[in-house]
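User: Hello! My lab partner asked me to get a predicted holo structure for this protein. The small molecule is pyridoxal-5'-phosphate, SMILES included with the sequence. Please write out the structure tokens.
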Amino acid sequence: MSRSIPFLELAPMHADLADELKSKFAKLLEKGLFSGGEEVDTLEKTMREYLNVPHAIPCANGTDALELALRALEIGPGDEVIVPALTWVSTAEVVSMVGAKVVFCDVDGHGLMDLLQLPGLMTARTRAIIPVHLYGKMVDMERLLKLTVNTGIHVIEDAAQAFGAFQKGRSAGAFGAIGCFSFYPTKNLGALGETGLLSTHDPSLAERLRLLSNHGQPRRDTHEVIGRNSRIDTLQAAFLNVKFSYFTVWQQKRKALAKVYLDHLQHLKRMTVPSGILQEEHNAHLFTVQTEQRDALKAYFAERGIGTAVHYPLPVPSTEAFEVNKKFPVASRLSNLTLSLPLHPYLHEDDVRRVCEEVQRFFSIR
Ligand SMILES: Cc1ncc(COP(=O)(O)O)c(C=O)c1O
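Assistant: Hello! Below are the structure tokens for the protein in complex with pyridoxal-5'-phosphate.
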């Protein structure tokens, strides 16, 4: 029996980094410092430099980042916000949480917001558009920004899956008014818990985001606006500082493994491989294929101990929480076709080859 291949394995990565992570924990435990401090300042500086933005503001998680972005732009009841129909639920959830109306846009064949449909969805009430760089593949930001020029509509990038992706040298999250990132443990750069980040070029937005995420306080016990607590834990900042020093190497590994997949699978007629995954505008977060036989392939893998995942089994407007009557044919179709194969920096090349062999065997007997 061959060894099983989980969809994602974080334990070997953390075993490698255990000494460094434990030493950070020990130091902070000794100091008794769990909020703010040097580790948070270091993370901010690192992120400013890496994303090449003047303001990088850590927060509690990626969902909060999106909600804080909407609040900083004073979006609320009476406003409309356009989001793609295929995404993680957060993108739409936050719009409802601030009291605005969610307007869903269907996606293109890659699962990205269909920019051809955007103009038809923009109304006098549209205050923002939230493109999602799904699976780590970036939306064409130049094209999107052209559509919003002189409209007063803000672009908030949901870059939760796209840390490490760049378009013409500019980072995901650095195009719109505000960029939102998640460092959830399964992301390419993942904390050991929940964390997120906001990026912006605009100093007044940066100031507002900081205020909103810290009870409206420019300093202790001064509350200038009504805010909340969405601060990052110092421990998570410290862990991210450790992990960031390996990020470039991990990205190279992801790309190398994605190439092995492509070499073996791109010629298959009954399966589509992710386009552009080796390019800079894709961070190789997920290796998501499309096939009419998705469910059978998923079951075939499961019988052989190979983990896969579906991103996502339902378009957000079809979930019970949203239940929108309108049809989103491409998003619906993709939710039946897509399957994400194992891809992470600690995956062995031999395991990728085995997954590829199983795919080939699966199609050869059907
Ligand atoms: C596209 C997208 N948006 C938003 C989020 C929310 O991030 P978090 O889980 O850190 O709240 C995620 C995380 O899975 C995501 O994939």
